[in-house]
Amino acid sequence: MNVKRLSIVILAVVLVFCFFGSQAESAAFPAKEITYIIAFNPGGESDIEFRAMQPYFEKALGVRFVPDYKPAAGGALAWQTLASAKPDGYTLAGFNSPHIITQPLTMKDINYKTEEFTYLTMIEYTPAALVVKNGFPAKNLKEFIDYAKANPGKVTVAAVGKFSGPHLNVLQFMKVAGIKLTYIPLQGTGQVKPQIMGGHVDAAFTNSPAAVEMKGTGVSILAVGTEKRMAQLPDVPTFAELGLPIYPRIDRGIFAPHKLPKEIEQKLDKAFYSVVTNKEVQAKLIEAGFVPNPMNAAQTRKYILEQKEQIRKLLDDEKLMQTK
Amino acid sequence: MDIMNHLMQGAAVAFQPMNLLFCFIGVLMGTLVGVLPGLGPTAAIALLLPVSFHIPPVATIIMLAGIYYGAMYGGSTTSILVNMPGEAASVITCLDGHQMAKQGRAGPALGISAIGSFIAGTIGIVGVMLLAPPMAKFALAFGPTEYFSMMLFGIVIIIYMSSGSILKDFMTAAFGLLLGTIGMDAIAGTQRLTFGVLELADGIGFIPAVMGLFGISEILMNVERVVATTLVTEKVKNFLPSMQDMKESIRPILRGSFFGFLIGVLPGPGPVISTYTSYAMEKKLSKTPEKFGTGHIAGVAGPEAANNAASSGAMIPLFTLGIPANSVIAVLLGAFMIHGLQPGPMFIAKYPDIFWGTIVSMYLGNAMLLVLNLPLIPLWIKVLKVPYAILFPLILIFCLIGVYSLNFSQVEIGLMIGFGVLGYFMRKFKFEMAPLILALVLGPMMESNLRLTLLINQGDASIFVTKPISAVFIAVSALLIFSTMIPSIRNRRSKFKEKLGEDDM
């Protein structure tokens, strides 16, 4: 009896598809595997994040998610590829902010615009932490700022990249705290750790998992860029707590090419939101060192556009814009 | 005995049948990807990452580490047989290894590289066991200043290795440095010489360059030689190194292991510099330096030992500091993170079973590799008997697939072919490839470390000679340059005199 009922349902579905061919096309989305472009190396944070959620995405949408690594130029190559992909929902990419905002503002040869994407979801963020070397004269954030004020330009602060998220975090910190530091751009967190642990630079802005790893090596963690204190770093205050309203961090989410059909956008939005708000998924993300920060499509777009205005202003003040 | 306790604990983990199996899978995979030109250990580990979700962390780490050092073994096989290094660390092996193969001595060359690697691997592991914490401090003492001086030393070594024209070596090294400036300027954040091609923003990839220069150009050269039908025309004499070979190799192996381990601990270019250093050192210490480059077994044994010891050394910053020494280790670090393990100063104390289990498994893996590789030698030598018409198209296909599999980038395929043509002309005009490769690898790091040093020290360059480690490198480099100049002046003079003499006649 069940079999019979099932076959009637199938017949009905097939008939509906036949009659409403064009509409059925989007109603049937997704009908094949989805390519998910990862803008950074295998094993990196963007990869770890995707791998943790992949089975849940596949369950929610019923198709395979195939990762496609395109690591180059701090993510720009991957996002450029996405920008020129067909907006059919079968090519998606993970985005990192503020990278996605700073690149069109500071790099030449970038052919995508921050607002010309369909933002689908925000997943998590990695907060940054301010770390000082062993034996540095300042033991807390206030002392650090006082010391930097007394010695303008003398204190070296390292972070990953130029015009990158971490660089921007440093710029913002200097502006809000009213201090001047010498910025040391390094390549990758792997380089930041030995430089600060070896005392070759005075301070560093680094992602919080790296800061957690360095606990017990003599470096001091002065502040962290979350809203509330982190479970792994209960003794470390947030910047906001200490009177600096900044939240240095790298945000990560998923987006699709510009002008994605509304029905597909809604379907992906719903599916992704159910995954990023899933407690089991969030527990996995926390274990890997991330702070879950779920947003739906509309919230994500609004957040990115607000961030863009702030960053544009910051870069303008610092005269770092290469393109207008 | 604390160490003995730890070792027993590690052995208990490593000898579990499941872990033995994953260790074997790892070294086998490693040997295979090492042998296939282009498919490097980074790609293999990345491909296997998803698998690692479903097996316990210890087994994952054991398997991935196996791939890493297994590939070090395998990489030299192609260097020796077809003059195509699988990775930067086996570039030097081509110099004498391939010459040996051409003289029908591929067996001893492969044999000594397996034995040398085993001895070096063993020394390296003992080193990791005993010295991990103090060595981690040593690695931390290296800041931008020290790195710059060490790389300068690396470049100077090129002059030392020169078997042909020093002038030509300088030219290729300078060209390599120039190519190294392509890409994003890490300090200023602007694009240099990329002509709007985003794939070039991170610089010219090492793999396309080395596969083009060595692999593709080798194929082009051989297309010209229609007469010979196989790569090695001479009869293969024996499969294993003779007693004489062993005697000539044992000192280079021990020296290579020692220095390789020390240099390998430094994150970054450790294994590559270790091979160049070992080769230069053996050539200088040898009573018959003129034999280097013509198929001298010490020229294979030393560098091969050095790169293996260096790959063990690279485990120290990973386990004790959570710092990846190179791209392979970086992927390995990613695997740790996926399992929620955070390598760092607390790692060994927190997860003794994983640390010691991995160390013991590395030892087992090295033994497995020896057992696996020695019997394979006759098989590899058969590869040399495959006619050109079949072998070279196959190699070409492997190169193309290999390069594409790295970043899925067509630009890199184009780059590889371009380097192939460049390599062809370099061979025609008798330019060495090794200086170009080393300069291409070290150039960008040298530049950024120089500029970082100056940034940190507010433009004061005297720091290079006032910091002790850096000063030693600078002093040794200066000495090396002087000592090479003297004989060359002397030689030229004596040649000049001879000429005068001839004219008088």
Q: What do you see in this structure?
A:
With 324 residues, chain A is an alpha/beta fold. Chain A is built from twelve helices and ten strands. Chain B has 505 residues and is mainly α. Chain B has a two-stranded antiparallel sheet. The radius of gyration of chain B is 23 Å and the shape is globular. The N and C termini of chain B lie far apart (77 Å). At the A-B interface, helix 3, helix 4, strand 6, helix 8 and helix 9 of A face helix 14 and helix 19 of B.
Biggest interface, chains and residues, is:
A-B, 51 and 54 residues
What structural category characterises the helix and strand content of chain A? alpha/beta
Number of helices of chain A: 12
Report the biggest beta sheet of chain B as strand number plus sense, adding barrel if it closes. Answer: 2 strands, antiparallel
The overall pLDDT average of chain B reads 80
Radius of gyration of chain B: 23 Å
| Secondary-structure element order of chain A, N to C | HHEHEHEHEHEHEHEHEEHHEH
Count of helical stretches of chain B: 21
What share of the residues of chain A lie within helices? 40-55%
Rough outline of chain A? globular
Widest sheet of chain B: strand order? 1-2
Q: What is the number of beta strands of chain B?
A: 2
What is the CA–CA distance across the termini of chain A? 67 Å
Oligomer: heterodimer
Provide a short characterization of the protein structure.
The complex is a heterodimer of chains A (324) and B (505). Chain A has 324 residues and is α/β, with parallel strands linked by helices.
Supply the key terms.
heterodimer, A: 324 residues, alpha/beta, 10-stranded mixed sheet, 12 helices, 44% helix, B: 505 residues, mainly alpha, two-stranded antiparallel ribbon, 21 helices, 2 strands, globular
Protein topology:
The complex is a heterodimer of chains A (324) and B (505).
Chain A: H1 2-19, H2 21-27, E1 34-38, H3 45-61, E2 65-69, H4 76-83, E3 91-97, H5 99-106, E4 117-132, H6 141-150, E5 156-160, H7 165-177, E6 182-186, H8 189-197, E7 203-207, H9 208-213, E8 220-224, E9 249-257, H10 262-276, H11 279-287, E10 291-295, H12 297-317
Parallel strand pairs in A: 1-2, 1-3, 5-6, 5-7
Antiparallel strand pairs in A: 3-9, 4-7, 4-8, 4-9, 4-10
Chain B: H1 2-14, H2 17-35, H3 41-48, H4 57-82, H5 91-102, H6 106-140, H7 144-161, H8 166-180, E1 183-184, E2 191-192, H9 206-224, H10 243-264, H11 270-285, H12 298-313, H13 315-321, H14 327-338, H15 347-350, H16 352-385, H17 388-407, H18 410-428, H19 434-456, H20 463-466, H21 468-504
Antiparallel strand pairs in B: 1-2
Helix pairs in contact in B: 1-16, 2-4, 2-16, 3-4, 3-14, 4-5, 4-6, 4-12, 4-14, 4-16, 5-6, 5-12, 6-10, 6-12, 6-13, 6-16, 7-11, 7-19, 7-21, 8-19, 9-17, 9-18, 10-11, 10-12, 11-12, 17-18
